[in-house]
Write a structure and sequence with these properties.
single chain; mainly alpha; 7 helices
């Protein structure tokens, strides 16, 4: 295999390598973006679900409190009956169901989050005790209303804090996920740019080597064509000398010809006077070269 052929194979190998590297970088980048997007979607879904259930719990607690106050302040048994039915058959079970859902969502969370749920359950238990049918019926309106409000307000404030915190956590998680995706995208862009720079550098190096390998062959062909135009041997010798001086830089060239009759070498181009070749050339035989 010639040097030119080897360089051609090298150039092809470099192109293949860069293509594979670009494909790998692209694949890893796509996988990273997909993974980050999935993680972001999962976090967002969890936070939204938690915030939604907490907000629904707050709404159910507000409704239970309103119906409890209505029962306490009802003027008579007939008007109280319908309110009690809705309070005990709808409002209270709805709150209990939301608490169970909230506990289930936080089941895998840390101790701090579980402590928050336990606190909510305790606050609700206190309020739930106040809306017990027997207590509401046997208390005066003012005492029952004041006691119910005293149990409701801490629970309501706690729920509002949780809703605000869940919304803030959702926003923070979304921002972190967006930042992660941006870093991945910038990493892909940087990696592709680096791969392109390496590819260009390799391409330039290979082209230079190909050029250095091809130029002598081209010069040789051009010299052969020029030599065909020489009118005699003298001109051909001078052309050869100039050609060799270009090929072998910083050299002193003398063209020698074989004199078959005298069995010796003789200079057919001028030899500088200070050249050490002049003295030894008189006895040089063709085999001396």
């Amino acid at each position: 295999m010639t040097q030119t052929s080897r360089l051609g194979v090298l150039a092809g190998a470099c192109c293949l390598f860069c293509s594979v590297v670009a494909a790998v970088i692209g694949g890893l980048g796509i996988a990273g973006v997909v993974s980050a997007t999935d993680a972001s979607a999962g976090l967002a879904a969890d936070e939204v679900a938690t915030a939604t259930i907490t907000a629904q719990l707050a709404h159910e607690v507000d409704a239970a409190y309103a119906d409890g106050q209505a029962v306490v302040l009802a003027p008579g048994a007939s008007s109280r009956a319908g309110l009690e039915s809705r309070l005990y058959n709808q409002r209270l079970p709805a709150v209990e169901a939301r608490l169970v859902s909230l506990r289930r969502i936080h089941a895998d969370d840390g101790a701090a989050e579980l402590a928050e749920i336990t606190r909510l359950e305790d606050e609700w238990a206190a309020m739930r005790g106040m809306v017990n049918a027997e207590r509401l019926v046997h208390r005066s309106a003012s005492v029952g209303s004041t006691g119910l409000r005293a149990r409701y307000e801490p629970l309501s404030q706690h729920l509002q804090q949780l809703v605000s915190r869940e919304n803030a956590d959702a926003s923070a998680d979304h921002a972190r996920s967006a930042m992660t995706i941006r870093w991945i995208i910038w990493g892909i862009v940087g990696s592709v740019a680096l791969a392109a720079l390496i590819f260009v550098s390799l391409g330039v190096a290979v082209v230079r080597r190909l050029r250095r390998a091809i130029e002598p062959a081209q010069e040789q062909v051009e010299f052969g064509d020029t030599l065909q135009l020489a009118e005699d041997e003298v001109e051909a010798h001078h052309l050869l000398k100039k050609h060799l001086q270009r090929v072998v830089t910083d050299s002193l060239v003398t063209v020698l010809n074989r004199n078959n009759s005298a069995d010796r070498l003789e200079a057919v181009t001028a030899i500088p006077a200070d050249s050490p070749m002049a003295e030894g050339l008189g006895q040089a035989r063709p085999r001396s070269c």
